[in-house]
Amino acid sequence: MPNKMQTIIAVDQNSTLSTRDRGLNYGDGFFTTAKVVNGQVQYWAHHKARLIECAQRLGFPELDFNSLENQIALQIKAASLNVLKILVTRGEGGRGYGLPSECNITILLSILDYPSNYEALVKKGVNLEISPIKLAAQPYLAGLKTLNRLEQVLVKKAMQTQNCDDVLVLDYNNNVIEASAANIFAIKNKCVFTPLLDECGIKGVYLQSLCDKLPVEFKRVKVEDLTQADAVFVCNSLMGAVPVKRIEQQVFNTDDSHALLTKLLAKEAEC
C-alpha cells in the first residue's frame, strides 16, 4: 500500500523546507525533471518509472501517485512550455545517517522556465571536450538520479575553463559515461550503441524512450568509439536528441547525423 505519510510542497507558492530534512542534510532523495508542453508532461510513464525505481532501490516507502499526479495536474495546467521538477526526500528523522523508524516523505514540485538555448542547440549541434573530472564507481547508485550531484557540480565548474558547449565525462577506467547533464548515444553502421551504466552515471528518460523505438546496445565505450562513429548525440528529456558537432578535434556533419537518426527511426516504425 502507498505510504500515507507523504507531504507535497509546491515550491513556487512560497512554501518552506525543514532544516532537518534528510534531503538537505544528506542528499537522501532523488528527482526527475520533465518537459511540459501545453499542460502535459512529456514521457510521463518513463518519469514515473524512474521515481518508482529510485524509491525501491533506495528503500523508500511506495509513493502515492494518486495524490502526486493530482497535484502535478494543478501545477502545470497553465504551463505552455516549461520544466517540471519533482524532488523526493526521506523527510525528517533518524539519528545521524540512520533511517527514521517511520518515514514521512517530502515531495517538492517546481515549475521552471524552459532553457532558452535548447532549441538552438538541437539545430546547430554541440561541441564536446573531455572533462578532467572523472566519475567514481558505485553500483548501488548507478543509473539513479539521486540528490548527490557534487560530481556534476565539479564537472560544470571545470567547464568554465573549457571551450565547448558540453563535455564527455569518463569513469576512472576511461570509459565514456555521459555528458554533464545528458546521456550519450552513437550510430555506427546503422547500429545504435550507448555507454553501459552499471557502475555510475544516470539512465535518462529520453534514452529509455529511445530504447522503446530502436534496438540500442549498452556496452563499454571509449572516446575513440565515438570519434569513429557515423553520428553521435547527447540526449535528455528536455532537449531530446542533439547531434554532436565536434569531439575534441573530430568533426561531424550534424545534417547527416539528423538524417541518419531520422532514417533509423522511420525504418523501425515501419516494422
Descriptive account of the structure:
Strands 6, 7, 8, 9, 10, 11, 12, 13 and 14 form a nine-stranded mixed sheet that branches. The chain has a five-stranded mixed sheet with strand order 1-5-4-2-3. It is α/β, with parallel strands linked by helices and about 270 residues long. The chain starts with 5 loop residues before the first strand and ends with a helix. The relative contact order is 0.14. The chain is about 30% helix and about 30% strand. It is built from eight helices and 14 strands.
Topology:
Blueprint: E1 6-10, H1 22-26, E2 29-37, E3 40-41, H2 44-57, H3 65-76, E4 81-89, E5 105-113, H4 118-124, E6 126-130, H5 150-159, E7 166-170, E8 176-178, E9 183-188, E10 191-195, H6 205-213, E11 216-219, H7 223-227, E12 231-236, E13 240-247, E14 250-251, H8 254-270
Parallel strand pairs: 1-5, 6-7, 6-13, 10-11
Antiparallel strand pairs: 2-3, 2-4, 4-5, 7-8, 9-10, 9-12, 12-13, 13-14
